[in-house]
Design a protein that fits this description.
three-stranded mixed sheet, single chain, FTHF_cligase, alpha/beta, EC 6.3.3.2, Rossmann fold, seven-stranded mixed sheet, 4 helices, globular, 198 residues
Length: 198
């Protein structure tokens, strides 16, 4: 990665993180409800019976309501667990979701750990992002876990990144390892983007 791209990404991430930190609890709750509605509709539209999602942190657009609801409706939900080698393990979400603090302070499930290839047979992936561009490029938070996961998949399912409405941008700084997504889910809409991820 060139210094210029790395610097641009760092600056943009800092700005996006600051904006997220300024949201009120009421704004976050409203966003989480909107995300849950959008994701439920996306699952219905795609007919997904097995999905991967993640447990949102306090500043991310909330996904926990959606995960709880999906499990209650009988959808198999895989949740990521970070590893020291840069790969993701997975655990199946259940009714009494036990959560612990994982690497980087992220909320992660406690339970039977499935290896990195477990995500290979999901019908839909829902992943975090700092921002998404109109051409489908995704800016993550700089650790590369999801880029590595997506890049190693043979057959990619539809992949949607969850962001706030203000984080859908015209373009983003990018590097060779950055992976595109199929679309973005915000609290108010779900958009399929120009560059399909599969």
């Amino acid at each position: 990665m060139s210094d210029e791209i790395a610097t641009a990404k760092r600056a943009l991430r800092a700005d996006l993180r600051e904006r997220r930190n300024l949201l009120s609890e009421r704004e976050r709750d409203a966003a989480a409800a909107g995300i849950a509605d959008q994701l439920r509709a996306l699952v219905a539209r795609t007919g997904a019976e097995s999905i991967s999602c993640y447990l949102s942190t306090t500043t991310e657009p909330g996904t926990r309501e959606f995960v709880t609801d999906a499990v209650a409706r009988g959808i198999r939900v895989l949740l990521p667990i970070t590893r020291t080698d840069g790969l993701l393990d997975w655990a199946v979400a259940d009714d009494d979701l036990d959560i612990a603090e994982g690497m980087f302070g992220l909320p992660e499930p406690v339970g039977e750990v499935l290896g990195p290839i477990a995500v290979g047979d999901v019908d839909l992936m829902v992943i975090p992002a700092a921002a998404v561009a109109a051409d489908g490029m995704r800016l993550g938070w700089g650790r590369g876990y999801f880029d590595k996961t997506i890049g190693s998949m043979e057959g990619r399912p539809p992949i949607y990144a969850v962001v706030y409405d203000t984080e859908l941008l015209d373009d983003l700084p990018r590097d060779l390892h950055d992976q595109p997504v199929t679309g973005a889910v915000t609290p108010t809409r779900t958009v399929t983007l120009a560059a399909s991820a599969h």
